[in-house]
Amino acid sequence: MTMMSKDKEFPNNLALIKEFEVLSHEIDDAINRADFAAIEILDQSRRNLVNKMEVPQDAVADEQWFKIAKRCVQQNDAAKEKVLGLMAELRQNTGSKLRQLNGYRPS
């Protein structure tokens, strides 16, 4: 089933949700690899999917849609915290290595 909106045809929300979940897992993998460029690209793709989702008109579907939206926000917050932690760790390790190298500098 597809939905029509302003002369544009969109896949139904279930297909978008499945694609959203795949992107979420790929983002988690990119976070674990500390691949910040991939995280940014995948997150933008995931945001584009959310923009394509139709907001349902009936109460039951509406509740499900908002559960998905809430989960999206929670996943984004968790991913953001993890990435910030990785970046802080990287910055600290880099600073430590630079201080060590400065110790070897001739006077």
Topology:
Blueprint: E1 2-5, E2 8-11, H1 13-33, H2 36-52, H3 59-103
Antiparallel strand pairs: 1-2
Helix pairs in contact: 1-2, 1-3
Question: What tags apply to this protein structure?
Answer:
single chain, 107 residues, mainly alpha, two-stranded antiparallel ribbon, 2 strands, 78% helix, elongated, disordered N terminus
Could you name the ranges where pLDDT drops below 50 across 5 or more consecutive residues? Answer: 1-11
Strand count, sense and barrel status of the largest sheet are: 2 strands, antiparallel
Q: Give the termini separation.
A: 74 Å
For this entry, what is the oligomeric state of its chains?
A: single chain
The largest beta-sheet arranges its strands as 1-2
Q: Rg, please?
A: 20 Å
Total number of β-strand segments? 2
Structure write-up:
The protein has a two-stranded antiparallel ribbon with strand order 1-2. β1 (2-5) and β2 (8-11) form a beta hairpin. With 107 residues, the protein is mainly alpha-helical. α1 (13-33) packs antiparallel against α2 and α1 packs parallel to α3 (59-103). The protein contains 3 helices and 2 strands. It is elongated, with a radius of gyration of 20 Å. The protein is 78% helix and 7% strand.
